[in-house]
Design goal:
The chain is an alpha/beta fold and 235 residues long. It contains six helices and ten strands; from the N terminus they run E-E-E-H-E-E-H-E-H-H-H-E-H-E-E-E.
Length: 235
């Protein structure tokens, strides 16, 4: 069997906060791999380090020690300009609380995604996520589930290979959450690599790989042999 291509590899990541007796490890010697076409779930409770790890992979937060190798380059060594280009071109982001700009329209939120100004593609993506006819609305005029779908359309408009999702259903009701999971499932099936952080173990059933974290450490890494579809997820 041909081995999957490694897209991102973290090596011995350490991230601390505080000092002296108040020193806390957000990440403590964390090494993980993200393979091409993974649906990887990073699972853990509050304070486990899962979101910190995602932010490191996304080039948002800086590590104290360790490496993050992407296409042969260590992004830990990138300067601010290089990190900006990395975030623009390589990874897309979907956050728990959407991070939309409330005083511009849905369409403008999508079209203003860094690295993309394709208006026709933006309209196609809004149709794809079920928001055709909502392009002139403002985010505050939409439901939480609709806002999250705008955020997904914005991330897809960048055309990046990897989609990073931090608790994408965390602020949603069950019905809206399932709609978002179904959309992510479809996107993955079309070839996108997805890394999704969640505290909900039932959602991890959608993944082909699951990494479990606790207290800043990876405590378990497993292949999921019994992948469930989004509509089967109950939490």
């Amino acid at each position: 069997m041909e081995e999957k291509r490694v897209l991102i590899e973290t090596k011995n990541l350490i991230k601390t906060y505080g000092e002296g007796e108040g020193l806390m490890y957000a990440l403590n010697d964390v090494s993980v791999k993200v393979y091409e076409h993974d649906f990887l779930v990073i699972l853990g409770g509050s304070g486990s380090g899962k979101s910190t790890l995602l932010n490191m992979i996304g080039g948002i937060d800086k590590v104290d020690k360790g490496e993050i190798i992407v296409e042969g380059k260590d992004i830990v060594k990138f300067n601010d300009k290089e990190l900006t280009l990395y975030r623009r071109d390589t990874v897309g982001f979907v956050y728990q609380f959407f991070n939309l700009i409330n005083d511009i329209t849905v369409f403008q939120n999508v079209i203003l995604a860094p690295g993309s100004r394709d208006k026709e593609k933006a309209m196609e993506l809004l149709k794809r996520v079920g928001l055709e006819g909502k392009e002139g609305k403002f985010p505050r005029q939409l439901s939480g589930g609709q806002q999250q779908r705008v955020a997904i359309a914005r991330a897809l408009n960048k055309n990046s290979e990897i989609l990073l999702c931090d608790e994408p259903t965390g602020a949603l009701d069950d019905i809206s959450g399932k709609q978002v999971l179904k959309l992510l499932e479809e996107i993955h099936n079309e070839g996108k690599t997805i890394v999704l952080v969640t505290h909900t173990k039932e959602i991890a059933g959608m993944a082909n790989r699951i990494i479990t974290m606790k207290n800043g450490v990876v405590v378990k890494e497993e292949e999921n042999k019994n992948i469930v579809k989004a509509e089967e997820v109950v939490w």
